[in-house]
Amino acid sequence: MSATVTIIGILDDGWSGLPDATRSLLKNVDLVIGAGRTLELVRAHLASACEVRDLDGGLSQSVSWIKTASAAGRSVAVLATGDPLCHGIARYLIAQLGADAVTVLPAPSTLQLAFARFKTTWQDVVIASCHGPDAGEWVMGATPEHGLYPVIRAIARHPRVAVFTGPHNNPARLARALLTVGYGAEINLSIACRLLLPDEAVFTSLALADVAARQFPEPNVLLIERRATPEPPRFGLDDAEYQQRMPDQGLITKQEARVLSLAKLRLQPDAIVWDIGAGSGAVGIECARLVSHGHVWAIEKNQADAANAQANALRFRLSNYTLCLGKAPDGLDRWPDPDAVFIGGSGGELAKLIEHILTRLKPGGRLVMNFVTLENLATATAALKAAGVAWDVVQLQASRSQPILNLHRLVAQNPVWIVTAHKELL
């Protein structure tokens, strides 16, 4: 390229808020690219010969516009809101054009202004964005493709999150999503609207229910603060802490087998996990609590058990857990390839299910299965041997103390075979 592209940060105070050097540059530039609302902030001050390109809906074309102009020796300016390197266009253009072809002239970030209005520090804040296409309302079990997912997961991991919102994915929709996940009084929201404009408005310390029912002036940015509340352990919860089917409680992987199975899965924080035969959901839920940057897909064929698993997921405010009602392997083709799979129930399709999972399991991935019958153990090990996959078996026999008069005795649980298969790295 024979000319440098200048990416200019601009706020809603427009021309008056720009430094003199930036104004001079814009008065003499050959091509200005920007969203419609930012173009209107400078249009009256551009030279009559300056070409203007509206970026709305044209992001993919912007690179070719820039390359064509630069090849002809024409100077180019791209307008962006606030700091172009904070959830702005600069990252994209630098990746496409190369760092040497780009100069960035930032304005204060809209977040800096918002926190100045909130009168609170922001060095510990995590930044997220849902400024994009209409994501639709959040539902329990929403997958990572949902437009609110990055924000919801950031809130699950961090106590203070600043959010760039959008006209569709606005504060009210985000508040409704958080209520759906199961949050409540522990969350406060502050909203800064139309910063630097005459009708600027700032709202602080609002409750979720209040924000969910209101519309706020656009554009706006949002601060979500979550107060610390007592949290159960990430894994190894007591069986009684899970909602289960009555009167035959026991359709749950017992605590002792659950903890060992989770250890055998060797989950990374960003793991994609399948939970086959979810039952009450205990294993999949504890997986979801461990894979804070990952996601769990679970399937259960019994409607009553699935309802319990969903209720348990809601109790723990899981936003990275998707439960499907059905019988595996039906529907698994719609799930992403897993890093780890747990089988707690197979519905009589065990060999077929193992074969299917091994074709989908990522290299280095693990398949862990729990069995209480000799027949299923034999079926599983035969299927693994036929597939040429390395495996091992642990027999777990646990006994729990139980009162007897003023003393205690040990009551044995059923033995459980924990089978672990490891798919070697290619």
How would you describe the overall organization of this protein?
The protein has 426 residues and is of the alpha/beta class. The chain has three domains: 103 residues, Tetrapyrrole methylase, N-terminal domain (Cobalt-precorrin-4 Transmethylase, domain 1), CATH 3.40.1010.10; 116 residues, 2-Layer Sandwich (Methyltransferase, Cobalt-precorrin-4 Transmethylase, Domain 2); 184 residues, Rossmann fold, CATH 3.40.50. Helices cover 30% and strands 25% of the residues. The protein has 13 helices and 19 strands. The strands form four sheets. It has a seven-stranded mixed β-sheet, sandwiched between helices. The longest helix is centred in the C-terminal third of the chain and has 14 residues. The radius of gyration is 27 Å and the shape is elongated. The two termini are 42 Å apart.
Describe the secondary-structure layout.
Layout: E1 5-10, H1 20-28, E2 31-34, H2 36-42, E3 51-54, H3 59-71, E4 76-81, H4 90-97, E5 102-105, H5 110-118, E6 126-129, H6 149-157, E7 160-164, H7 171-181, E8 187-193, E9 201-207, H8 208-212, E10 220-226, H9 255-265, E11 272-276, H10 282-290, E12 295-300, H11 303-315, E13 321-325, E14 340-343, H12 350-360, E15 366-371, H13 374-387, E16 390-396, E17 399-404, E18 407-412, E19 416-422
Parallel strand pairs: 1-4, 1-5, 2-3, 2-4, 6-7, 11-12, 11-14, 12-13, 14-15
Antiparallel strand pairs: 7-10, 8-9, 8-10, 15-19, 16-19, 17-18
Helix pairs in contact: 12-13
